[in-house]
Amino acid sequence: MRKLFSLHDYQKRLAGTDALFSLSLLGLASGLGTGLVVLAFRFSFEFVQKAFLPPSDTEGNALSDKQGLQANYEHHYENYEALSSLSHFLLPFIGALLLGLIFHFLKPEHRRVGVIHVLERLNLSHGYLPIKNFVIQFVSGAIAIIFGHSAGREGAAIHLGSAISSLLGQRLALPNNSIRTLVGCGTAAAISASFNTPIAGVIFAVEVVLLEYTISSITPLIIASVAGALVTRAVYGHEPAFTVPDFTLSNFHEIPYLIATGIIIGGLATLFIKNACWVAQSSKHRQVMTRFALAGLITGAGAVIAPQIMGIGYDTVNQTLLGQVPLTLLIIITLVKLSVTSTAVGLGLPTGIIGPTLVIGATAGATIGVIGLSFIPNEASNSGYYAMLGMGAMMGATLRAPLAALTSLMELTASTQIVLPGMLVIVVANLVCNVLFRSQSIFNSLLTVQGIKTTASPLEQLLDRVGVYTLIETNIIRLAAPPETQPPTTPQQATVTDDNPPLILIEENQQPIGLCEYHNAAAAFEQVTSNAQFTPKNQTQSNTNLNAPSALQLIKPIDPQATLREVLLKMDQEQVNWLFICPPTKGAKPPSYKKIYGVVSRQAVVDYYSRHNR
After folding, report:
1. Does residue 552 contact residue 514 with C-beta atoms inside 8 Å?
2. Do residues 158 and 447 touch, judged by C-beta distance below 8 A?
3. Which pTM value belongs to this model?
4. What is the DSSP letter of 452?
C-alpha cells in the first residue's frame, strides 16, 4: 500500500519557494507551540510575584469596571514600590548573584540567550537553536523578573518561541530554509502573544529577524502570529497589554513640538545603545560573576532611587498613560531606567530590551507632554498621548523597527488617529538615532561588539531561502570503479535516451569519488585506473582547478537540509563543482553512503540565481 504521508517527500517540498501550504501548516504549529510556551513563562514569574508582592490598587481608577479588572489582572503583581528600600536594593543584588552562580557553571555557548542569540544563530547556524539555551532562557528570564531587575518578558518570549519552533524543524529534519522561516514564525507569535498585537508581531519578525519579505515567508508568519494571540487571549482576554485612554491630536500647531519629541527620543535611544555597547566592550573579558554582581549593585542602587524601574514596569506605563505620575518622578524614572537597563544589558545580564524601551519611551514622552501642557495648556494634547508616541519612537529607534513600532501603536490604541503623529515622531527619532548619530539597532550593535557579522548580501539572502532539493539531479547511475587490471567499459545498467542521458557516479570502496557524463564514462574510468590526472586521496591544487577540462569531476557529500548558499560554500571549501546529497550522519558514526538522493552542480546554482535576479 502506498504511504499516505512521506516525511522525506514533505522535506523535499519544503526545500522550494512554492511550498506555501506546507509552510503554513508549520506556521500554525509554531504559533500554537509558542503561545503555550509564552503562557508557561508568564505563569512562572507571575505566580511567584503574586505570592510575595502586595497587590496594587492604584490602577484603573479612570477606566470602566471591565477595563479596570483587566488592568488589575495584568499588572497588580508588579507592585515592587510597596517594598522597603532595603528590599529594593537587596532583591536585584541577590537575583544577580543567583544568576551569576548559574551562569558560572555553564559553558560560554550555553550562556547566550535573548533576541541577540536568535539573530546570531540565524546568521551563523540557519536558525538551529539549542535546547540547553532554551532552558537557560526560561529559568534566567523568570529569575531576573522575579528579583526585580529592569527586564522585559518579550525578549525572552522571542527566544523561547523561536527555539521551540526551531526544535520542531530540527526534529523533523526539515530543510534549513524552512527552519529559518520557523524561527520567524516563533518571533511573530511571541510578540503577538506578549502584546496582543498580531500585526506588529508579523512586522517585527520581518523587520528585525528575517529581514526579508516574500509571500512564502509572510503567510506562515501571519498564521503563527494569529495562533499565538489566540492562545494567550484564551487566558488573558482580548484586551491589549496596556490600558490606553481615548485621545487625539489637538491641532496641527503641535507638529513642531512632535518633531522636537522625536529628536529628544532619538537622542535617548542613541544614549541607550551607546552606553550598552560601551559597557559590553569594556567588560567582555570580565568573569561572569563579576559582571552580574556589578549589574545587581547598579540595579539595586537605581531601585532605591526609583523603585518603579523594577520588574517589567507595565504598571508604571499604565499609570503614565493615565496621567497619574508627577513630572519630577517621570524624569527620574526615565533617567534611572535608561542608565540601569543599558548598563545591565551591556554587562550581559539576561534581561529583555523591548519592555524597558517601552517604559523609557512612555515616561520620556509623558515628560515632554507635561512640559508642553505647562507652556501651551490650550494647544497641546495630554501627557498620555505623548507617552504613547514616546513608546513607539523609543522602540522604533532602539530596535531599528519603525514599522513594527507604528503598527504596535495602531493596535494598542485601536485608532487610526495616532497614525499621522506616530509616523512623524517615529521617523524623526529613527533619523536622529540612525542617520545623525549613525547607530545600528541595539541587537546588531551588541553583536558587532562580539565580532559577529549580522548582514547578508542580496545573493546570500536569495540562496538561503531555497533548499538543495530544488536543483537536485536524480538521473544518476552508481558504479564502482574497476580494478586497475580490468579495462574500463561503458556502463550498460540503465536505459539511456539521447534527450536525458544519466550522470555516472563513480565509487571507490563504496564511497563516491567522482562524477562524469554518460558518454565520458570510459575516459573517466581510465582517469581513475591510471591515477594520472585524478588523485582524490592526495590531490594537489593544480588538479583541483575548477575550470580545468576533465572527464571526471571530483564530488563531495552535503546534507539534504542544506540551502543553496551552503551548497556554494561547501563547493568553495572543497574546491569542487559537484556535490552528492545523502542522509546526514548521526552522532559519531562514520558516514554511510548507501542511500544517495541525487547530485547538484555549481552551474545549476548560478543559473538559478541568474533566473531569479532579473
Report:
1. yes
2. no
3. 0.87
4. -
